[in-house]
Amino acid sequence: MKKLTITWDNIADSTGYLFSFAKSLACAVKNSPYSNLAEDIIATSGFAFRMWVSPDLCPSATSIWSFREQKPWVENGGLTCNYKERLWNSDDIEEKCRLAAIEQIKQSIDNGIAAISWDIGVPEWGLITGYDDETQKFATLSINGSTDEMEYALLGKRELPILNVLTITGKSEKSTKNIIEDTIKLAKKHLTGGEWCENASGLKAYPALIRHLEGENTDLALSWNMEYFLGTYAALKWYAWKFFEKYRLLELAACYKNVFDCWQKAFELKKASDLSLKDNRATVANLLKQAETSEKNALNLMN
User: Fold this and answer.
1) CB atoms within 10 A of CB 129
2) Cα 50 to Cα 292: distance, rounded to the nearest angstrom
3) CA-to-CA separations, 28 to 23, 225, 249, 297, in angstroms, rounded
4) Residue 207: in which H helix or E strand, if any?
5) Is 125 helix (H, G, I), strand (E, B) or coil?
6) Residues facing 52 on adjacent strands
7) How far is CA 54 from CA 22, 46, 67, 171, 251, in A?
8) Alpha-carbon span 251 to 303, nearest angstrom
9) Is there a contact between 123 and 159 (Cβ–Cβ < 8 Å)?
């Protein structure tokens, strides 16, 4: 087995719910020759700004977006990458895509960089960290921290049978100035609903989440699903704050520090308190409203 030594250590995750694609991307970059871009990439690819909320708070809402945008979004941050996908109802190309993805993964590992792949242990994004042609197995690192092996034949054919593989291939000559400008464009496009999603997205995600805290039916407000959404977006907002702080865009940094603080406090309150109590639900809702106001202010600064 040719295998890279990689863990989730040193990937900032304030809640433990950092979105699996974003966390896998940051970890792959962190353990590559381009490690200086690892903290930036969650912002420069736009994921620090993306929010998707379904009416029933189904966690899979965070994984319903235009997958093929991964390549241009990641390359916005000054990296180059290869991408292979095969979605549902494409049985005629399944084998061809799988074989091409296997070669892409092996090449990436030969270059010392883990491959980001969908559903390699749990139905989320994780990392493929090694391969063995003799046994026809990959070494995998799931988002839950478990390490295992997976047969080549199962790539794209597990619990949710789609193929989605992205590998980092190099660094482009894109200037920091252009990266920052294009990151702001990505953020604006998402926040204003310009990126495809079948659920509430961007700033519309706030009222979609808040309504469960202010309504009479508290089942979803009390659920683990609410914790998942709060934890996922709190952890992402940290990267937006740190990106703007790093590049001295101080007004935007101040906005996103407040956005992060509010989401983080809302998450911690959900974890620690009884949301069956109306006052506690109101506190969480008010924190999200404060975050919404700050993010709207940030959007105005971007224009």
Assistant:
1) 26
2) 13
3) 9, 27, 27, 33
4) helix 205-214
5) strand
6) 201
7) 20, 20, 18, 36, 31
8) 13
9) yes
Is there a contact between 24 and 129 (Cβ–Cβ < 8 Å)? no
Q: At what angle do helices 176-191 and 278-302 cross, to 10 degrees?
A: 130
Give the whole-angstrom CA distance, residue 90 versus residue 13.
Answer: 35
- Range 63-72 burial, b when 16+ CB lie within 10 A, else e: bebebeebbe
* Cα gap 156→290, rounded to integer Å: 41
The model carries a pTM of 0.97
Quote the percentage of the chain above a pLDDT of 90. 94
Q: For residues 255-266, b (16+ Cβ closer than 10 Å) or e, as one string?
A: bbbbbbbbbbbb
Tell me which H or E stretch contains 216. Answer: none
d(Cα 101, Cα 166) in Å, to the nearest integer? 9
pLDDT tens digits, one per residue of 147-166: 999 999 999 999 889 999 99
Gap between the Cα atoms of 67 and 65, Å rounded: 6
In the beta sheet, which residues pair with residue 171? 79
What torsion, rounded to 10 degrees, do the Cα atoms 203, 21, 63, 77 define? 50
Of the CA atoms within 13 Å of residue 21, those in its CB half-sphere come to 23
The mean pLDDT value of the chain amounts to 96
Distance CA 31, CA 6 (A): 7
